[in-house]
Amino acid sequence: MPDADSNNGPAVGEDAVTADVIVVGAGLSGLVTATQLTAAGKRVIVVDQEPARSLGGQAWWSFGGLFLVGSPEQRRVGVHDDADLALSDWLGSARFAAGADRGEGPDRHGYAWAEGFVDFAAGELRPWLHAMGVRWFPLVQWAERGGYPVTGLPSASPDTEHGNSVPRFHVTWGTGPGLLEPFVRAAREAARAGLLHLRFRHRVVEVLRSGDAVTGVRAEILTDDDAPAAAPFSGRGTPSSREVTGEVELRAQAVVVASGGIGANHDLARARWPREAGRLPDRMLSGVPDSTDGLMLGVAGEAGAALVHEDRMWHYPEGIANHSPVWTDHGIRILPGPSSLWLDADGGRLPAPLYPGFDALGALRHITSRGDDHSWFVLNKTIMEKEFALSGSEQNPDLTGKSVPQLIERVRGRSVPVRTFARRSPEFVWGTTPAELAAGMNALVDGTPGSKGHIDADALAAMVAARDAQVLSGLGKDPQVVATRAARSFWVDRRIRVAPPRALTDPADGPMLAVRLSVLTRKTLGGLWCDASGRVLDASGEVIEGLWAVGEAAGFGGGGVHGHRALEGTFLGGCLFTGRTTGRAVAGQLT
């Protein structure tokens, strides 16, 4: 970006304080919205409270996973998928309130966005991105498998029919940075053409209104905050100063909120967590930078915007503390294969089908209902090397750096980031026997203030022996053993994601390993209530003229496109879909 658009200095000239549209947030959804508008010839100001180094927001740190339906990548690995099956899976997972399909109730807009997104994922999404140079890792992954009964009928159970029937998780070649690149490039081109002004270190504290219409924003100007020269990733994502040096009012015909959710605000997440699911623990990790604070949602609320489904969140139970943190309480998610035993804090197995990779939210709610602050994967070295992947662009240098030699090492089960974590993280506990493993697990918990739980060595040994007997039988009736055997029927899983069926105690695969898992905050599924084009609504369902929302701030569409559960690959996709749809809608309404 030109220097004049990349600082926190005072706005100079009429173009710097007025525009056709103000976009609040320079993450993926904000950039997509802004570039859709500039492509239509509209003048746009994008404001963001973070420094220029964090352009792209959370998406830069992501694995780059996209939910695509009926793709060439699916067909190449023998997966048969279509929009009808995908929508069935989506609705079975979302469990929208009754009447949503008839345009009634608080979920009606989320339902409409869900239908639109599935059509987009089965249609225009891939060719649109492909035309901009985006490509994908050819081996499609199977996330959120579910494992609950499929009836095709409405059910009182929130679990029935949850999950992806087929693999749909497409990893972008280049991960999050690769997905961002065409939109950053388009923004740079728009800036050179004088259509886009990007103003960093501007924190919006008020949405301005004249009568019934939104006319702009008031923003505090924050102090310059240069990252230390030695900061990793050039200081991207590091906490920045909140010292205020000035204030400015910016005017426009429309304001689009693209500020993200509340994932870094643990107090707010705890306050909104549904009571029937227990309580989020005091000790948690953050999967998003500190700037994901939910501030702008409150500012929009003060301007009359309705916030809906605030108790719907998508946090992960499989978090481990980053050995080289960038932001506060920085955590990484383990993306597991299905073979590890998943135990609660006292060593009990999580109930079926809460196996690794099957139902993240169901596992989390089980853990919080017990009042635990952690759970455990129990496995061995071979399973770790075959089945563990780590979330995030920085944890996947092969995919992020588009390195084929490194990727070959991953396929061979020699992922360097996983091995580095295993070596450097105290959350990885090793043992040659279940008794030795239990002693190490208890020592780790005892050394963590406020943490509770105890693993009985004899009970762990008996559980491991029973599991191994089921696996070595060649068939086995244990539901997890059956599910793991079914996973091997998918060619990609058999090749790169599921370990051979052997005993945990087999010395050739050892030593044994237990990994302590913590709650990792991530996504907000609720948000600003919006209609089918992204116009923000008030509590009575009336449009607030001139106010729009996209991305996570809009619950990825309509205030909650996912309902109660997500299917993975749909968060980045939701940012793309809402930014594209709403950007075009705003452009069409401007005078």
UniProtKB/TrEMBL annotation:
Keywords: Flavoprotein, Oxidoreductase. InterPro entries: FAD-dep_OxRdtase_2_FAD-bd (IPR003953), FAD/NAD-bd_sf (IPR036188), KsdD_DH (IPR014614), Succ_DH/fumarate_Rdtase_cat_sf (IPR027477). It comes from the Bacteria. Gene3D superfamilies: FAD/NAD(P)-binding domain, Succinate dehydrogenase/fumarate reductase flavoprotein, catalytic domain. Pfam families: FAD_binding_2. Residues 20-572 form the FAD-dependent oxidoreductase 2 FAD-binding domain. Coiled coil: none annotated. NCBIfam families: PRK12834.1. This is FAD-binding dehydrogenase.
